[in-house]
Amino acid sequence: MPEGPEVETIRRTLHDRVVGQSISSVWRSEFAFRTPSKTKDLLFLVGDRIAELSRFAKVLILETDNKRGVMLRLGMSGRIVIEPTSAVLAKHTHLRIGFEGCDFELRLIDARRFGDVQPYKTLKEKEEILAGLGPDALSFTPDEIKQVARVIKKSQREIKVILLDQNVVSSVGNIYACEALFVAKIAPTHKGCEVSVAKIEAVLYACQEVMSKAVVNNGTSFMSYFDGNGRKGSNQHHLLVFGREGESCDTCKRPIKRIVQAARSTFYCSYCQT
DNA sequence: CCACTCCTGCGT
DNA sequence: ACGCAGGAGTGG
User: Fold this and answer.
1) Cα separation of A52 and A126, whole Å?
2) Average pLDDT over residues A57-75
3) In chain A, which residues from 136 to 195 place their CB closer than 7 Å to nucleic acid strand C?
């Protein structure tokens, strides 16, 4: 479900509610998360005070004063909400974190369970979990863009598929990969090595641009994304190609096409993107 | 590189 | 009934 901008929006909407709270309870459902961990592996959080709620790539990181914490990944269908402790549990609620003296709690709801919950007990463990993720396109520096462009230039894979590889560049998902390639006027089917370094850098800047705008719009609620307050974003009204198969390209008025790459839909304009 | 996997829900 | 869904990993 969420890409970098949606996770960032969730982080912002949750931040003031949870930072500074002391954790009084942690509950998880009977289902195993993708990274195996027992309930007791989360109970160490009880009693800790939340120092920070941060994000890297599509990972939400809840860290306590004791420099340990838990990472939340939402997969395709995950949602995080703050709800009254007394509120009926939504179907597919898999994690609840309660706070001392509060009548509300944080809940992770994830129908497909493609998401994950990864506790860490030291900063070293935290680093290990995040190791391998490429530079975050939401906070790109010019040097990072040059570095990522060099990697892409050497690749035989299709550029759209590369943009989805979190180990090359992170935070970009299917929506924003399509949008950025349209902005940069690059055909999604080109191999990385076939595209000029200048155009590769252009699409990386475009990733940062379209995702920054998406953050301003509180994310893209295409299917079922909601922020931490249960509100929809509005960026779906600003998409140029994603989800618009058959509609006319804003630039040339020709119909937008849909193809499948690496089992994911790609939307693009075959006339504007060359 | 591709195919396939994890899982549920929704629209046609 | 079937195809599709914003993610990510695996094994051939």
Assistant:
1) 14
2) 98
3) 164, 166-167, 173-175
